Amino acid sequence: MTKLALGTHPFLLGFEQLERLVERTAKSGNEGYPPYNIEQTSENSYRITLAVAGFAEDELAITVEDSALVIRGRQADDSEGRVFLHRGIAARQFQRSFVLADGVDVGEAIIENGLLHVDLTRAVPERVVQTINIKKG
């Protein structure tokens, strides 16, 4: 028995991009830092919350690149001239990516109490019925 790939199934026409999207998501290599939550705030809206304690606004960047929401953090190294007896809080950079479906728009981003909130909305597509005329050949 031959296994069909998602994009080559005869009933799924035009879904080749979905297969590439799944592969890209699997390869994104997101590690566990920083921790995050994704919540559904209404039927068509979501909120991603990242724990970014210690990061200032200007040390965070949020972009949308090739249908992916990318959040980056880079702290300035302020340890010069300081002597640490114990250093358990590392100044560490991160990049966290979230693949966005078609029709999902990134709204505002808010930082409060060490949490970065990014709001997303999903546009509800209109239902379209199209009649195709049949010509005699």
Search tags:
137 residues, mainly beta, 2 domains, four-stranded antiparallel β-sheet, 1 helix, elongated
Structure classification: mainly beta
Average residue pLDDT: 85
CATH architecture descriptor text of the largest domain: Sandwich
Radius of gyration, Cα only, in angstroms?
21 Å
Ends: how far apart? 39 Å
Strand order of the largest sheet: 1-2-7-6
CATH topology heading of the largest domain: Immunoglobulin-like
What's the overall geometry? elongated
The helix tally amounts to: 1
Number of strands: 7
Helix proportion range = under 10%
How does the major sheet shape up? 4 strands, antiparallel
Low-confidence stretches: none
Task: State which percent range the strand residues make up.
Answer: 35-45%
* The CATH C-level class name of the largest domain: Mainly Beta
Query: Into how many domains do the coordinates divide?
Result: 2
Q: Note the run of SSEs as H and E.
A: HEEEEEEE
Q: Would you give an account of this structure?
A:
The chain has two domains: 1-30, no CATH class; 31-122, Sandwich (Immunoglobulin-like). Helices cover 8% and strands 36% of the residues. It contains one helix and seven strands; from the N terminus they run αβββββββ. The protein has one helix spanning 16-26, and strands at 36-42, 45-51, 60-65, 68-73, 94-99, 104-112, 115-122. The longest helix is centred in the first third of the chain and has 11 residues, at 16-26.
